[in-house]
Amino acid sequence: MIRILTLTSLFPNSVQRSHGIFVLQRLKHLVASRNVEACVVAPVPWYPAFVPGPDRYTIYREVPETDSRDGFEVSHPKYLVVPRIGMSIAPGLMAASILNAVYKIASSRQGFDLIDAHYFYPDGVAAAWIAQRLGLPVVITARGTDINLIPKYRIARRQILWAANQAAAIITVCDALRNEMVNLGVEPSKITTLRNGFDPDVFHPVDRDEARNDLGIQGRTLLSVGHLIERKGHGLIIDALAGLPDFNLVIVGSGPDEADLKNRVRRLGVEDRVRFEGTVEQTELKSYYSACDALALASSREGMANVLIESIACGCPVVATNSWGTPEVIGSPESGVLVDEWSSTGIAAGIRELFANLPARAETLKYADRFQWDPTSKGQYDIFRDIAERTAAASTAPK
User: Which domains are delineated in the chain?
Assistant: First the structure.
């Protein structure tokens, strides 16, 4: 049995039940093999209440210090964030805040074989520092902006490369991230691509007519799912809708750009064709995927967007911008259409192209079979087992 400590700020908690759900899902399927046992340290940002600062941090004050999530023991130590000036010291602040929690869990569970970290910055850097201090190997998974955006900052890039050098192995969720890490100077032999998957118990088609009736959806309807920030491109889809008079749009998600997006809808005069649904529980998303005619994803930057896999797993084809790991999911007409131009006109053209030859939902559903979790779980276990065996051999070798 391999004992791991999963360390990441991307993990669901009692007030953000879908936050980092993809990390939980991968861990659940790995542990289901009965070859691995795990507990989780999921630090949350903390900002002093008496100091004026960003509202987005206030929700974390409600997160309990310890919790359980789908059978996992979860510790939520709080780490100080320093807005605007704190990016370069974030890994150190995170590491300092979680060290005691790691010691406490390690002593109560008779130690770990390795640390399983997700997201390179600051999480992976903090995990590498702690692993070095404890004399443990660390595996770090790169997931998106941690590699395709943050290394543009010189100090962060230096710390990411240090952590990559310390890591016993690195996992990327798509080949595009792997290639970028190699371009940054990381040793290629350390890096393995293991794609995200979907949980068929959660994401599967439901009766389309019933879902449309329950959600009040009529006519040709597009779906846009994700955090309401510029990078996700919801605004481009709204702009595209102005030139697509026969289409409606449902937007699922919340975030800082919500007011601006609603103003955009009013300015374009498409209020009667756009609905903002806010945050929707993961278990309810399948009804939206089943009821809508296509998912539109206009992101400028993604690792491997989980909404793509979730959508096709429910038989809903996709129009998506051709960026980073997206073409590794949307790879044939059954899955949808890729758009090369990150613009409203490009999105509108992609939507017209998809609906000119809309695939049968059964074909899209069949295509999704390649995104089961089993290959990822096996690949992850093989990496962990190899590291555990090498560590054990090194500890017994003559000095």
Answer: 2-197+373-392 (3.40.50.2000), 208-371 (3.40.50.2000)
pTM tops 0.85? yes
Helix, strand or coil for residue 68? strand
Residue-wise pLDDT tens digits, 39-91 = 999 999 987 766 655 566 677 888 899 998 988 989 999 998 876 667 888 99
Q: For the sheet with 114-118, list strands across it.
A: 66-69, 72-75, 36-41, 2-7, 114-118, 138-142, 169-172, 191-193
Kindly give, in sequence order, each residue whose CB lies less than 8 Å from that of residue 376, ignoring residues fewer than 6 positions away.
26, 29, 194, 195, 196, 197
Task: Extract the tokens encoding 84.
Answer: 């605007």
> In this structure, what token pair is assigned to residue 136?
């443990």
At 32, is the secondary structure helix, strand, or coil? coil
Reply yes or no on whether the pLDDT at 399 is more than 70: no
Q: How far is CA 10 from CA 42, 79, 123, 164, in A?
A: 7, 14, 9, 19
Summarize pLDDT for 290-334 with one digit per residue, the tens.
999 999 999 887 778 899 999 999 999 999 999 888 999 999 999
